[in-house]
Specification:
It comes from Gluconacetobacter takamatsuzukensis. The chain is mainly α. It has one domain. Helices cover 47% and strands 3% of the residues. It contains 19 helices and 4 strands. The strands form 2 sheets. It has a two-stranded antiparallel ribbon. A two-stranded antiparallel sheet has the order 2-3. α7 packs across α12. Bound molecules: zinc ion. Zinc ion binds next to α12.
Length: 459
């Protein structure tokens, strides 16, 4: 999920906020976000779930769904708001004027009221479409326009011609609905929601100023919703408390609540679509660069780099930012290029795809719970962040991941990091480590679906 058309990613002084580590963190998480093209992961993860391959659901327009549930939805969202305020210590309360009333009006009014009530980008149309895998052509007369799917002009990792429109009432595969929905949070749901992003919605939503990342770089504005730094040391939180102002837990809980509600109200299409939204954030937290600020760098070094920067010695900090940015980009590019090539070649034995279908570790997280985000999912990816970071250094050219003087161009559609790998031994170790991440992503995807699927009760 690397952004296209956004080239202004070099470190700069913009976005500085107080605290020793402020400048470090101001740029780290704004560049590359999570895994690339989540449906590539989700299709594999769900392919091994019993009965999933043949399950179908009838597509339903968002307006039809909202019109039917508008009387009952406010109470559910009020309950969700109460949970978030009581449970999440850094949660910014939703302003009362955003409450979803038992609104009357046309589809556009219902949709706008809903998007505001859940505080996502109000440019999202939530139209009906499914994404097709690499190598599957969508007929020209079936294409769903990219501009209707996303508020972004383009995404480096998603072919705009892979989206196929669906009509209300069409029967679609549940696996495709869920997989497609796992890309939707990267299509703009969380873009420009902070008050300093220059969008009208940000002034209303009450999230405050963007805690880290460049508030003027639109794709980076979603970073605090897709990253969760739960495993840094106390000194890092003391000096850079804003790192705790992240929202994946709130998003996962909200979208799982909406999923359960939709199923219970007899709207399974939206049950599955909201489930896919929740799965996106769970998958993101399996990405080590989403749960650690500077993998492989000790807290003492982080603080020292910050001190030097405050004293006017900017070199170490600039270098650290470039290094972590490029490794983050390299990991995503590697995962995306390798997996999309495997799809195109119908090579389902690629180790990354096999790992996503590997259920051997599912016993360690059979059913997802709210506590799983911190205690299991992000804890595991944080624990291996340093090892993976070191392996990236051994596998890819120093010019990219050690001594680079500038960040890699994430908008470069031709960049294929897979071709830049070192000798086979290091390649094999790299494959194993990324496959381990994919095994976790597959397990976590299934754990969320199992707990939401009305037909999986007791399974
Ligand atoms: Zn994401």
């Amino acid at each position: 999920m690397l952004p296209g058309g956004e080239r202004s990613i070099r470190p700069c002084r913009r976005g500085w906020r107080g605290g020793v580590l402020a400048v470090v963190a101001a740029f780290l998480p704004s560049v590359a976000l999570g895994w690339s093209n989540h449906p590539l992961c989700t299709w594999q993860a769900t392919a091994v779930m019993p009965g999933m391959a043949d399950r179908m659901v009838r597509a339903e327009a968002v307006g039809t769904f909202l019109a039917d549930v508008s009387g009952r939805l406010p109470a559910v969202l009020d309950g969700e708001e109460k949970w978030a305020r009581e449970t999440l210590p850094f949660y910014a309360p939703r302003p009362d004027d955003l409450r979803f009333g038992a609104a009357v009006g046309d589809e556009a009014a219902l949709r706008a009221g809903f998007l505001h009530a859940i505080r996502v980008n109000d440019g999202m149309t939530l139209g009906l479409y499914v994404q097709r895998p690499p190598g599957v052509d969508v007929p020209a007369d079936r294409l769903f326009p990219w501009s209707s799917a996303s508020v972004l002009r383009t995404l480096e990792d998603t072919d705009p011609h892979s989206l196929e429109r669906v009509a209300e009432g069409d029967m679609v595969r549940v696996a495709d609905v869920v997989a497609t929905a796992t890309n939707e949070p990267d299509f703009g749901l969380d873009i420009d929601l902070w008050q300093d992003n220059g969008a009208a919605q940000g002034a209303r939503y009450g999230f405050g100023v963007q805690p880290f990342g460049n508030p003027h770089l639109s794709y980076g504005t979603q970073a605090p919703f897709h990253m969760g730094f739960y495993h840094e040391s106390a000194i890092v939180y003391r000096t850079a408390g804003y790192l705790q102002r992240t929202y994946p837990e709130a998003r996962i809980h909200l979208f799982m609540t909406l999923s359960r509600f939709a199923f219970a109200q007899g709207h399974p299409y939206w049950g599955w679509r909201f489930a896919g939204w929740a799965v996106h954030y769970v998958q993101d937290l399996g990405q080590p660069y989403h749960v650690r600020v500077l993998p492989g760098v000790s807290a003492a070094s982080m603080v020292w780099i910050g001190v030097l920067d405050r004293l006017g010695v900017h070199g170490p900090q600039v270098a650290a930012v470039i290094r972590v940015t490029n490794r983050h980009v390299v990991l995503e590019n590697y995962q995306y290029r390798r997996m999309s090539a495997a799809y195109r070649a119908h090579d389902m034995d690629d180790p990354l795809l096999m790992a996503l279908r590997d259920t051997s570790d599912d016993v360690s997280l059979r059913r997802f719970a709210s506590s799983s985000v911190r205690e299991v999912i992000s804890a595991q990816s944080a624990a291996v962040a340093g090892v993976l970071d070191a392996q990236l250094v051994r596998t890819f050219p120093a010019a990219d991941v050690v001594a680079a003087e500038a960040t890699l161009d994430v908008a470069d559609r031709d960049m294929n990091i897979v071709s830049r790998q070192a000798p086979p031994g290091e390649q094999a170790r790299m494959t194993r480590l990324v496959a381990d991440r994919m095994r976790q992503v597959g397990r976590d995807t299934r754990a969320v679906i199992r707990v939401l699927d009305p037909e999986a009760a007791g399974r």
